[in-house]
Amino acid sequence: VDNLPAGLESELEMLLLKVKALMAKQSYERAIDILKIINEQETCTETKILLRNAYIEFQKWEKAAELQKEIVTSTKKGTDKKELHLAIKINYEIAKELEENGKRDEAVKRLTELVKKEKNFAPPYIALGNIYLKMGKSKETVTTWKTGFEETSNLVFIFLLEDYYLEEEDPQSIITIYRNLVNDNSNNPGFHLLAGKLYLRLEMTDEAVISLKRAEELGLESDNLTKLTGEISFRKEYYKDAARKFKKALNLKRAVRIPFRCSSCSTVSDEWEETCPKCGRWDSFVIDIDTVHSGLS
What is 179-199 written as a DSSP string? Predict the structure, then answer.
C-alpha cells in the first residue's frame, strides 16, 4: 500500500483503501494526514467516521470530539443512539486527560455534565468520585458513588464505598449499606454472599456464617460461596474442612474478593475496568456471582 502508483493516489476510493490498510497496521498518524486531505476535498460521513476512529486510536480526543459532533448531526438527524453514546465516551476520555494534566476543576465540570446526560453510564461517576477523593472532598465522593449506584445498579460502587469507609475506619457505614441491600433484596442470594464477604473481611465470622448460609439456602451455586465458606473454616482452624472446600472451589487462591466478568466476552478480572481489555467493550464489567439468579448486574 505504500507504493501505489501516483495516478491511483488521486482516486478517492483508492485513498480510502490505503487509509484502511494504514489503520490496520496501526499507522494512525499517516492515516490521519490522508483523511484530513480527503475530508477537505470530499466531505462525506464515511470519511468523517474513519478520521474520527483514527483520532480515537491515536488518542486525539479533542479532535475526535469535534468530528463526532458533525457525525451525530448528520446521522439520522442526531438520533443515532450508538453515535450519541460514543460522543459521551469521547468526552469522558477528554475529562480523564484533563485530570491527568492537573486540570481537575475542568475535569470535574466535564464529568458532571456527562453524568447528567448519560445517567446509566458508570465510568463518569467512578472517575468523578475518584477526583473528589483526591481533592479531599469526602462528602462529594460518597454522594457521587451512591448516586452512581442508584442510577446504574452497578455493584462496583458498593465495592468502592466499602474500600472508602474501611480506609476511613468507619465500618458501620458500609455495614449499614450492605444490610439495606440485603433487606431490599432478601430473596437474592447474591446480596447475602456479598454481605458475607464483607463480614469476613471485618473478621465478623459469626455474621459471615449466617449470611453465607442464607445464600446457600436460597439456592446459590457458586465457587465464590465455596471459597468464602472455606476461608471461614480456615480462620476457625478447621483445616481439613477448609482444604476440602478450597479444592472444591477449583483451587482458587484464598481471598475475600469477588471477581468481575465482562458481560460481552466473559473475560474475568479481579478489578473493575472501564473497558474490557479483550473485546474493547465499554462499561461491561459486572460482579461475577456464578449463579443462575439475576439482578446483580
Answer: HHHHHHTTT-HHHHHHHHHHH
- Residue 261, beta-bridge partner list: 268, 286
Is-contact 291 226, C-beta < 8 A?
Answer: no
Q: What is the DSSP string of 231-243?
A: HHHHHTT-HHHHH
Q: Which residue has the cell 449466617?
A: 210
Which residues face 286 on adjacent strands? 261
Enter the pTM of the model.
Answer: 0.77
Per-residue pLDDT tens for 207-216?
999 999 999 9
Cβ-proximal residues to 78 (8 Å cutoff; 6+ apart), any chain = 72, 84
d(C-alpha 84, C-alpha 68), whole Å: 9
Q: Are 91 and 123 in contact (CB under 8 A)?
A: no
Chain center to CA of 7: 47
Q: Give the pLDDT confidence score for residue 232 in this predicted structure.
A: 81
